[in-house]
Design goal:
mainly beta, 18-stranded parallel sheet, Immunoglobulin-like, 3 domains, four-stranded antiparallel sheet
């Protein structure tokens, strides 16, 4: 069921002023002021997938499968449903309305379906994942076709969140938030090129800033508290929303799902003393699969990969905590070639820690204090005083035809 502002109702009371309105006397004066009940929708829709026919005793399917996704929203209503297919069957679409009928799945092997619904005020539910494995009776499952197309380009912003951002003190690059931004005693964009002034600080909602400097143009969609304590270097403040955050949010979730669908080709080794070693040799793309729980005991992270490659660490788990361990590189790789993809995390906590690389966590609220990130953070929302250092992730096009990387030996 939908919640209304986390279970609260908002009441607006109206009373008459003395100007132009008759004075209330007698029984009229004793009446309660009128109240207007306002319903605020802050809860995303809920969706469920129906698969026909059902699986066999082993959980597999013995022939073509149809999938129907239905979403409900008791307040503003369902705007659309987005889904992404990867593995044995590929494709994606955004379907308007509360029902999405997917193409019939016929290919042998495992098809991964990632889906989520959005309501009419753009609340988006966390993505859900469904696995459909089609076989022809007992026997090994055939190898899936090549992984879906993915273009990694996450270098425009130091911080990009779909919701609210608060607390950041020093962010060397650009900052954008689809919701509200709250910053005090801050600096944004200080080491950008002097000519790079567009969209340095963007709030889709309210821009609440004081005592700081912005090295470029800033914009806001709601209201702003910016006053003379804020200096705009090389730019100006204006009202407007130059970014389609809803569209970017769909693209980020699709990218995260597509990267997770790629077969791991790197070796992961977790030592009993807390060392986490990631070793890859592919010249272009090295993919690792790590459970989020591994980081709770990690005392040292080592990444070994070729200099010109990109490392994708697919991290699976609804919550993740990273604290008080260091990172080392070897083989030529550095932070401009590392992407941490938190596939299904809704909560990411980091403290006393430095992220060396870029974070992609499109479903997660990131709480990050007493640390820094040398790359970028793309997330659902973010809070904390972590510093952002400008070391943009190198772009890579995984859509070009090339030999598939050899699978990991383990």
């Amino acid at each position: 069921m939908k919640r209304l502002l986390s279970g609260w109702w908002v009441f607006l009371a109206f009373t008459a002023s003395a100007c132009g309105v008759h004075e209330l006397v007698g029984a009229e004066a004793e009446q309660e002021p009128s109240s207007l009940q306002v319903e605020i929708d802050v809860t995303p829709p809920e969706s469920v997938a129906h698969v026909t026919p059902g699986p066999d005793a082993s959980g597999h399917y013995q022939g073509p499968v149809t999938v129907r996704i239905e979403a409900t929203d008791d307040a503003s209503g369902v705007k659309d449903i987005s889904y992404f297919l990867s593995g044995a069957t590929t494709g994606d679409a955004t379907v308007e309305g509360a029902v999405a009928n997917l193409p019939v799945i016929t290919h042998l092997g495992t098809t991964t379906i990632t889906y989520f619904a959005t309501d009419n005020v753009l609340n988006t539910e966390y993505s859900q994942t469904l696995y459909i494995t089609i076989t022809q009776g007992p026997g090994p499952i055939p190898d899936p076709p090549p992984a879906p197309c993915a273009q990694i380009s996450l270098s425009d912003y130091n911080v990009f969140v779909l919701g609210d951002y608060s607390g950041g003190g020093d962010v060397q690059g650009k900052v954008a938030a689809g919701g509200n931004i709250d910053m005090q005693y801050f600096s944004v964009g200080a080491i950008l090129q002097a000519s790079d002034i567009n969209d340095v600080l963007v709030a889709g909602g309210d821009l609440n800033i004081r005592y700081g400097g912005v090295f470029g143009n800033a914009s806001y969609g709601g209201t702003t508290t910016a006053d003379r304590t804020v200096t705009f270097y090389r730019g100006a403040l204006g009202q407007g929303t130059p970014i389609d955050f809803a569209a970017v949010g769909v693209a980020l979730k699709k990218l995260s799902a597509n990267l997770n669908a790629r077969a791991a080709n790197g070796v992961v080794r977790l030592e009993t003393w807390g060392g986490l070693f990631l070793e890859g040799t592919h010249p272009k793309l090295n993919v690792f699969q790590v459970d989020a729980s591994a980081f709770t005991t990690t005392k040292y992270l080592s990444i070994n990969a070729p200099a010109q490659s990109v490392v994708v660490v697919n991290i699976v788990g609804e919550t993740a905590t990273l604290a008080r361990f260091s990172t080392g590189f070897s083989g030529g790789i550095n932070q401009t070639g590392v992407l941490y993809n938190f596939v299904n995390a809704t909560s990411l906590n980091a403290f006393g820690y430095g992220f060396w690389g870029t974070v992609l966590a499109p479903h997660a609220h990131v709480n990050f204090s007493e640390g820094s990130f040398d790359g970028a953070i793309y997330a659902a929302s973010m809070s904390g005083n972590a510093e952002g250092h400008l070391n943009p992730l190198k772009a890579v096009d995984l859509c070009a035809t090339e030999p598939a990387p050899e699978p990991s030996p383990n």
